[in-house]
Write a structure and sequence with these properties.
single chain; 304 residues; mainly alpha; globular
Length: 304
């Protein structure tokens, strides 16, 4: 069952990221490029050359981002950084979703098959999130910086493996890792609790009372849990992305929050909120439904 859960998590998470990649590019650019640009503020890292800056306007609206991305990068620009995202989902995504399923099954077995309480589901979701976060940060750094850099004409990383090599050779990587770790941890735990744990809770408590096709129930419960993800993760998503994009400007979770609140007001945390909410909702919805479909495929064709 462990291999089944990890396989289903990898397939569902990577598939979901491929579908939501354009929304990801738009939301990240809206979050990290919505302020005035200066070369010294975002690009003073030791492990890459400064990108070539091209005359493109700031990402002051979603329409600006759509037009400029299409004009300068073509359709492929909306999948910038996807190789990093795919690798991220086959590591971080597998741990975040797959380990949660492993933990809940082990917990249930220890209780002789009894349903888990919401508190126990939260504990499983939190444990899986804590283990997943260290796998997330390197790929997030590469992806977000690729998306940011290409807005100005040239990425510091040629591909995901070049990015990993650059991070490995940089003495500042550990300090940058420490800066973003709290924001990434909070976002992942909130995402896991509101998404996967809430979905499992709805399936346990309401699933047996609904006389309908299991797939329809999965769609209903994944829709509701995705709404919870959308509601609670937007500000943490923004904080994490900004720290990754500009670690010299935002030196940690608390500093980033205070600086954004001071300079832009609390609504600065919700820049690009509509796109972020849509991306998070769709990503969670696809993962939960694809996980069940991948599980059915595993049981039918690979179980023997």
């Amino acid at each position: 069952m462990v291999s089944r859960n990890l396989f289903c998590a990898g397939v569902s998470a990577s598939f979901a990221s491929g579908i939501t990649a354009p929304l990801d590019v738009i939301r990240i650019r809206r979050q990290v490029l919505g302020y005035s640009y200066s070369q010294t503020s975002g690009y003073s890292f030791c492990y890459y050359q400064s990108p070539v800056v091209v005359p493109r306007k700031d990402a002051t609206s979603v329409i600006d981002i759509l037009k400029s991305t299409a004009k300068y990068e073509g359709v492929g620009g909306f999948w910038t950084g996807y190789s990093s995202e795919a690798m991220r989902q086959w590591t971080y995504g597998v741990a975040r979703v797959g380990l949660h399923r492993v933990f809940t099954r082990k917990f249930s077995d220890a209780k002789n098959g009894e349903e888990l309480s919401f508190e126990e589901l939260i504990a499983c979701a939190t444990a899986a999130g804590v283990l997943a976060v260290p796998l997330q940060i390197p790929f997030d750094k590469i992806k977000i910086r690729q998306i940011k850099d290409m807005w100005y004409g040239k990425s510091r990383y040629r591909h995901v493996f070049h990015g990993l090599s650059s991070l490995r050779c940089c003495p500042e990587f550990v300090s940058d890792f420490k800066k973003v770790f709290p924001a990434a941890m909070v976002r992942t735990i909130v995402n896991n609790i509101t998404g996967v744990a809430t979905f499992d809770f709805l399936q346990q408590r309401a699933g047996s009372h609904l006389n309908m096709n299991p797939m329809i129930k999965t769609v209903i419960f994944s829709t509701l849990s995705s709404c919870c993800v959308t509601l609670f993760t937007v500000p943490f998503d923004s904080l994490r992305n900004r720290i990754i994009a500009s670690p010299n400007k935002y030196t940690g979770l608390t500093m980033a929050f205070l600086k954004i609140a001071r300079d832009e007001g609390l609504f600065g945390l919700y820049r690009g909120a509509s796109i972020t909410a849509g991306a998070n909702w769709l990503h969670n919805f696809i993962i939960l439904n694809m996980f069940e479909m991948a599980g059915s495929f595993w049981d039918r064709f690979l179980i023997s």
